[in-house]
Amino acid sequence: MKKILGLLVALCMGIPAFASVTVSPTRIEINANKIKNNYVTTAIEIKGDTTKAVRYRAYPGYFKISDKSEMIMLDGKGDIHDISDRIRFVPSEFTVPAGKAQKVRVNIANVKTLPEGESRAVLYFEDVNAKEFSVPYTGGSGIGAQLLLKTRVGVPVYVDKGNFVKKADIEYFKIVQQKDGLYTEMKVLSTGNSKIRYSGTYQIIQGKKLIAEYPVDGNVVGDNNSYVARQKIDTSKIKAPGEYTLRLVFSYFDEKDNRKNIKKDAILRINGEI
User: Fold this and answer.
1) What is the pLDDT of residue 18?
2) CB of 18 closer than 8 Å to CB of 89
3) Average pLDDT over the chain, rounded to whole?
4) Backbone φ and ψ of 259, nearest 5°
5) Three-class secondary structure of residue 218 per DSSP
6) N or C end of the chain: which has fewer CB within 10 A?
7) What angle (nearest 5°) sits at the alpha carbon of residue 9, between those of residues 61 and 73?
């Protein structure tokens, strides 16, 4: 019988809870230009299992945001934007009683020596004691393996310093036909040296009349990166075939925390019965 060690991971780019673990806040964003000292101190609250005490350990790692808007875990050795070696936890290992919460202080040192632009780390909170599960043989009885499962939650940390820029553009915006309906497709460009986080609305218009409005599925695009976003078009409020304007109102905040809007239109043709 084999023993296999597995790891369940939640990387909180906006995910409030995973399994029996809840963290708050789910991400940390810091403008180092506003820091008077050479360090940053913040805190994260960990809520564990409601039925039993769980022991956790805290440790940092490094990541980048891929062109699929996913957190990719990397060895940051040699990367000047990796701040994982500057992070300390107090406490670094702790027990959370059943139904209770524990605050962990996070210290980031030497922020004045960071390079310009965005630097990153991920804060991991991992249960110390692996949970053991029996995995049966496929197609038969008995136990084929014992799965040792650990759970950890990852909280991303972003630190902007110096002349950092958050700038977005849309390379193209179009409507595509898929088997299950019509979708929008757009390529979002993040051309600055710090990520952008976008949201917005879609408007369906005929002539000067607003037929429907619904939210854009927001996401994150890494610095000097791009992301192709697809979203199904909500045609539930269109009552008749015809030609409509589908308007994208794309919104993000720049490095000065000013809201920026980009508008793009596409022709939406509805044929047949509604």
Assistant:
1) 44
2) no
3) 89
4) -75, 130
5) coil
6) N
7) 35
- Alpha-carbon distance of 86 to 103, in angstroms, equals 20
As a whole number of angstroms, the distance between CA 173 and CA 266 comes to: 7
**Tokens describing residue 226:** 């791009």
Report which residue type is found at 102: Q
pTM higher than 0.90? no
What's the CA gap between 162 and 152, in Å, rounded? 33
Neighbours of 167 (CB within 10 A): 16
- Structure confidence by residue, pLDDT tens digits, 37-79: 999 999 999 998 888 899 999 999 999 999 999 999 988 788 9
The secondary structure of the chain in percent helix, strand, coil, rounded to multiples of 5, reads 5, 65, 35
Both tokens of 138, joined, read 């496929």
Which amino acid, 145? Answer: A
Q: What is the DSSP string of 146-180?
A: EEEEEEEEEEEEEEEESS----EEEEEEEEEEETT
Do residues 49 and 98 lie in contact, with contact meaning Cβ atoms separated by under 8 Å? yes
Would you state the structure tokens that stand for residue 266, as one six-digit string? 């596409």
CA dihedral 250, 212, 228, 198 (to 10 degrees): 30
